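Hi R.,

Here's the input for the pyridoxal-5'-phosphate complex you asked about:
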Amino acid sequence: MGKFIPLSIPNFEGNERKYVDDAIDQGWVSTGGAYITKLEEELARFLHTKNVAACQSGTSALHLSLVEIGVKPGDMVIVPPLTFIAAVNPVKYQFAQPIFIDCDDSFCLDPVKLREFCESECDYIDGKLIFKTNGKQIKAVVVVHVFGNMADMVSIMETAHKYGLKVVEDATEALGSKYTEGELAGKYAGTIGNFGAFSFNGNKIITTGGGGAVTANDPAVVDHIRFLSTQAKTDPHYYIHDEIGYNYRMTNLQAALGVAQMEELPEFIKRKQANYDKYAKLFEGFDLCKLIPFREGTSSNKWFYSLEIRRDCITAPMREIITRLQDKGVQTRAIWGLINEQKPYLGELTYKLEKAPYYATRILNIPSSTQITDEEIDYTAVTIKQLLKELCDER
Ligand SMILES: *Cc1c(COP(=O)(O)O)cnc(C)c1O
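And here is the predicted structure with pyridoxal-5'-phosphate in place:
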């Protein structure tokens, strides 16, 4: 077996097996059981928020947020172009229309372009933000904290308040990221906007296999989301349903895994942060790529590390870079393709996309698992530097 350094794999060093066995022994494996409540409580405590509803995925958490806001056919929602498509698809589930606004150098929503868009492209009438071009109401903005890096929430919230926009924070990659300075100091990703969505998919910082959670600034709204996620059953004894519900509740088996993972989350974050610093030292002064920093005034969970490839010298497509690194045992990944260029989104509205297309061809994610060793980090850095030099010379 040759060397293989994976991009991002789960870490089960704690009580995972014990708790999952316990859930099985008790016979509570489905959408009822004590681990679900326990996980919700642990998340709420960790995030310093009052109420969290566990659900089946980050996608369902985002979908329920839009449902709760009342996003309907004919409405519009501001979304990011450069992120995982799951952040945007729920807009389509509601038969609403997305409008893509550019990111800044953090890969998150550009707060300046957001404000400019609201000011110049919309009218604010009777508490409603109306897009001048088509007369439709813009009800919400989905803000993704990309790779664990936090968006400029101070500025975004200011604009949102001014224009009556509901803010859905997609914190699926940012569990544990928080502001440390400024007016939002101490506030965690997902607890600043009206809604916050989390994901516990296999490669996220903690995993439940598949799973997610949602929080909101109004605890009663979270209760209603929990209700919707369990088919909106109104009566404890009879099957009475006054609303359309969903089968979006997390299972107790998943939650058992999640409770164990929550015990380890602080350690996972510590390791991600320390490993980022090691990479930073190794890439320092190397001029063919740059390790992207995380926002000042925040403490990021540093979930994923990003290298910007210098395109003036290296013209090889990402596919070739990834394949050649793979041959040397280093698994890497290209950043996402632009969502507005994906087939179901062709022809949708965009606003001043400049940074998103720039970074879409330049960003490479490098191994970031919590179990990665110092030796593997060294090997990864050496291998990447060597390949980039080769590619630059080959031109
Ligand atoms: C992972 C992820 C999601 C979706 O989470 P799932 O649990 O896989 O449904 C949504 N948005 C972003 C940015 C993600 O990275």
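One thing worth noting: The first helix runs from residue 16 to 26.

Cheers,
M.
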